[in-house]
Amino acid sequence: MNLENRGNGSWRLTISDGYGPDGKKLRYQQTIKVDPTRTVNAQRHEAEKQAALIEADYRRKLLTISRKITVAQLADEYMKDSAQRRGLKPRTIQQYRDIIDGRIVPELGKKVVQDLTARDINAFYRRLQQAPALSKRSKTGGLSGTTQLKYHTMLHAMLSYAVKMGYIAVNPCDQVEPPRKDTGETQWYELEDAGRLLRALDELDDPQWRLFFTMSLYTAMRPGELIGLNWSDIKGNVLHVNAGAMHIKGQGTQRTESPKTEKGRRSIVLPPTVMEQLAAHRRAQLEYRLPFGKNWPEPDAVFTTDDGRRLCISTPTHVFQKILKRYDLPPITLYGLRHTAATVMIAQGVSARDVAARLGHAQTSTTMNIYAHAFEDASERATAAISSALDEAHARG
Q1: 104, 216, 243, 287: which could form a disulfide with 228 (CB 3.0–4.6 Å)?
Q2: What CATH class does 71-175 carry?
């Protein structure tokens, strides 16, 4: 083992391991970073301690003699492996690439993975704290803690893959404190406010938006599932959720091959209120698109732009917020309508299993965790009902 002082707190460790079949020396090299403000002797002492641990890992075959690889190269390798081994859906791959290409590669892409330190990652997280928000709707103007945590989660997964492949011995993300999630609690409407919203929707002139938000409440479908909805998915009064929608750079909104989860494929019986609005929207859409003839791009899409393309992913959110302001309704996210539908079902005594099926959750436990408040309230009402009935029977006896 040899340690070379490269200056500014950087020491290069070289471990010699005999000769390979081609007669060339086998060497494992790694850069060790220490505090550059300390004396040379103190630096060497710290570097030697780290080097001893690294050499021990190497001798135990936890490290391999591998090529230098940058964070950008690691990202490509990780994504390729994930897509092949885990069978990620195109939507998930796109979401991963957005995170990687959005800030991880621009900030850390040129760094060599073997040289990446906890100090580098901490500096990256500090820059995230100062970065501007991705959306104009941000109240703070900066990235939320929840968004920052997504970058940490992705970087941690990439570096865990690097450990698995023998590029590094330890994941440096494990040595730093990750950003803290700061998303508020799930928002939903009580029945009174849900009723106010439905009355406001009755006043809308556009049957498409009246239908979109009414269906959000009555079906508990995800916004992306509604955007991805085709007329051919509706058979009589039964809607079959077969797909979602996602934005693809350069291609706009595209219908996906499947919903968010495998359990996302489900059938929903539509009530008369929704069926009436579907018929009204269908008539209006057919009349509007008649002059376009065969030039209407998405003839099977239920929800479209004025020129026949599938709705942009963000458009329903913008329209929904305008409606809330116009009718002075309590602030809530578009996704909050799905939460409202779930809490209404629970309040009406629908089982956790049936609620999970309507929502398309892969696990009933997911439903239980998200809507714990609603299930607690339902449990209290059940206790009150049982107590009242038994107490009355007891008194009669």
Answers
A1: 243
A2: mainly alpha
